[in-house]
Known about the structure:
The chain is of the alpha+beta class. It folds into two domains: 88-285, Oxidoreductase, molybdopterin-binding domain (Sulfite Oxidase, Chain A, domain 2, Alpha-Beta Complex), CATH 3.90.420.10; 300-421, Immunoglobulin-like, CATH 2.60.40.650. Helix content is 12%, strand content 28%. The strands form six sheets. Strands 4-3-12-7-8 form a five-stranded mixed beta sheet. Strands 5, 6, 9, 10 and 11 form a five-stranded antiparallel beta sheet that branches. A hairpin with a 5-residue loop joins strand 13 (283-284) and strand 14. The chain is globular and about 70 Å long. Residues 1-35 have low confidence and may be disordered. Molybdenum atom is lined by residues 109, 155-157, 255-256.
Amino acid sequence: MDIARPDADAPAAAPASPRRRRFIARGAVASLAAAGGSAMADNLPPNVPQWMREPGAGFLNPAYGLPSPFEKNVLRKLPDQPSPFPTATRTPLQSLFGTNTPNGLFFERHHAGVPAIDPAQHRLMLHGLVERPLLLSMKDLLRFPAVSRSHFIECSGNSMAEFKAPGKGSVQDIHGLISGAEWTGVRLADVLREAGLQPSASWILAEGADAAAMTRSIPLAKALDDALLVYGQNGEMLRPEQGYPLRLLLPGFEGNMNIKWLRRLKVGDAPFQTREETAKYTDLMPDGTARQFTFAMGVKSVITSPSARQVLDGHGFREITGLAWSGHGRISRVEVSLDGGRQWQAATLDGPVQSRALTRFRLPWVWSGQEAILQSRAVDEAGNVQPTRAALIGTDGQNSIYHYNAIQSWKVASNGEVSNVHV
Ligand SMILES: Nc1nc2c(c(=O)[nH]1)N[C@H]1C(S)=C(S)[C@@H](COP(=O)(O)O)O[C@H]1N2
Ligand SMILES: [Mo]
């Protein structure tokens, strides 16, 4: 049938002409068919397809649903270089819609694996410079007033290889240590009020119940502002990988401070200078000094489609789309360039735009086969502008491996192949 034939070579026509509308309709049908392999005419309208001729399976997974088997390639991914102790999996940013990462695809970063915690055996200890030390069970925490909020978590080491040479992988390989979720939990401020802070309280040590006993110092101002003790992730209990049954969520702060499997909060009057904030997670500057306590993740964005390793399947209309985020608040603007940063156009933002949350941007584009360098540049409500790679390296040098937030450039070749380039 003619309508199902991929129409990759159709020339792009002027916007809003009837011819362009027809092209879009034909293209859409063609790519739907392509998604499931090659289309057989018998299954296409107006014929009655195979799967309408007899009842389907009663239920596929009655107890807990799974994605369609046709989506079996949308997966988290370990690094390409084999390692005896891999410590992270990355989110398939190129395959996802909207801003909530499905729980099974949320990136993972574990310092000592995923502990198997029985929530009935789990306690949160709150002590130090408080009036009334507390030992809270999960049942106790579930009785506090709850809030649900959307926030991203980004590993401070996300995109780190880009300080050096352009990575050869996909957007997942290069930037996949970021995900977003709607988290549910208790305001840390409420729990601290229950314990009562002593006047000299100014920092809080947070400790995880994994074999790494991961610990970080949290400034009291953040704890009293928007910090949460979360047990819910996109409507269900946290996944074991994300800290089941309890996690500290510090909206916008570098990933490692969001302590998973949270078991202890100790209130003090100075930072605790743990291993994870002295030997690790500091940024070595060009002058040889180490920058410590870079809490909020910088303003950043990346085009997820088209992106590296994709091949544009024909000329004509498509949407450029991606994600933007900032640890300093809301995204106020995203601009997109088609020519490596010479000219910029405003992208539209999907609303509501939330603070310290993933924000989806979009720009309509007609590709007629010319080479292009696609970039996105985000600006946040605090006025921070996502830097070029040259500007970032100008200030931070290339010794550092954390907090890479430079503008990403994707080159579209005339044959439609998309690759990562540094411009
Ligand atoms: N207890 C504990 N908390 C932890 C970690 C850990 O190894 N142990 N990893 C940290 C790091 S480095 C990051 S980037 C985030 C990753 O969160 P995710 O695995 O839910 O994506 O958790 C942080 N919290
Ligand atoms: Mo991390």
